[in-house]
Each structure stands twice: as structure tokens, then as C-alpha cells.
Amino acid sequence: MRRVKPAAKNLEGAKRLLLKRRIVRWLPRRPTRVLAAGLGVGAVIFLAIAAADQLDHGSRLSGALLATTAAAGFTVQALDVEGREMTTPDEILAAVNAKRGAPIFGVSPAAAKLQLEALPWVRTAAVERQLPGRLYVKLTERKPLALWQRHGKMVLIDQDGVVVATEHLDRYSNLLLVVGDDAPKHAQALIGILGAQPDLMKKIQAAVWINDRRWNLKLDSGIDIELPETGVAEAWTHLAAIDRDHGLLARDIERVDLRLADRVVVKVSQEPAKAPQGKNSKPAAKKT
Asked: pTM for the complete prediction?
């Protein structure tokens, strides 16, 4: 007598058979050829990367591989840039040296990085290929810090003392003017200290680096502030307190010397000399 399988097991077997048929339907008829084709494309891409990054771009092998990948669709179609504010699009395109439709493996990220970081406003750059056809550029641009006057010329510098612009400086007229050969190296530290007293900092017209040791500040009122070599922050805070309490900088003075830790020396403006009266000079007539 034949055994009859339980209905539940028959149902389970039917489900497995149906699933197997669906899987087989979607599998390629010749999986070996598909696998070989995939490996071939992968090998071409690998060789193209090697050709782009290692081989001479003028060699026949490099040119042939780049042409092959371009025919397969690996061409520059888009350039995404992050972090750009001051650098112009034309400068970026020239540095990356990639035209739309060019082989993407013909663009060297390392070479593009060096070219971008040579631009005045670019501090650091990163370049990536995002296959099949996108280039991604991330920039970290320099931040304007101060105007630097040297030998009668004025330029714009950043936090590292690097010159980032020499023209169209009117837009940066609100920045501090520093003077002296090595002033850019010390400007960031000084501005950090001065910024702790913003109301007093607004009165500064220029900061002059003296004898490669310390700063003199020129106020818009004409008063000179002589800062010490060390303890600059303490001296600046002390001056701000004296000015708030006694209105020191509103007085008729020429110079405030903060170089001594235990005292503040003030030089008062000299009164203009009166015109001498000669023996034959006549007294002025009084008005009645």
C-alpha cells in the first residue's frame, strides 16, 4: 500500500519547487560567460586606474586603456565642488584639468590636489573619482585675517600669514592693518588678544611690529600704545579697565607705555607754544 505524505509537507515541497523555478528563470543561461565578462570589465577598470595613476599618460598602453574605459562610459560628466567661496570656478576647472566627456581615469586626483592647493585662496584640497563619471572636489579655503603693509604696498593675509590677495582690498577695510616685515607671523596671536576687548579694538588704526619683539598700536585718535614683549593680554585688559573707569584715552595724551608690569606711563600732549610779543607790539584793542 502506498504511503500518502501529509498535506503540510506536500505544500512545503511545492513552495520550494516554485521558488527554485523562479530563481532559475532569472539566472543567465550561460553564467560562465557572464562571470567572465564581469571579470573582464573589472580587469579593464583596474588596468585603467593603474595606467592613470602610475603609467606615463603619453604611453600607448595608457592611451589605449583610457580610450577603452571611455568607450565603456567612464567619462567625466559632472564636477562637484564643496567648500568654495573665494576660488573661482574657472580656477578650479583649470587646476583639475578635466573637460566634460574626457576619460575620468585620465584625471589624476593627486596632481589635481597639488594644482588646487597652489591657488591663493585654497589651504587644503581633496579630489576623488566617483565612478562612472563624477569628480568630487572638497576645498578648505583660507580665512582673511588682516591687511599687511610692507614697503608701501598693502596685501591681504590669512591666519598663517600667507598672502591671499593683492587687489580689490577695499572690501577688507574693516580688518586690522599690521605693519612690519615679520608682522604676519605674529598677527593672529595679537588679534586674538585684542579681540577680548572689542570696544577698545575698534579704536585701533594700525599695529606695528617693533624690532621683531613686540607691538605698538596706533589709535585713530593719534595715541600710540606701547605693548610689552610678554604679558600682552594682561596689559591690554588693564588698559581697557583704566579707560572704562577714568576715560584715559579720551584725554589729550600722546602715548601710553604698558611695557612695565607694575605701572602705566602716560605722555601728555604738549601745548602749542604761544606767539611771543615784541617790544613794539601793540596790545589788542578790547571790545566794549
From this structure: 0.70
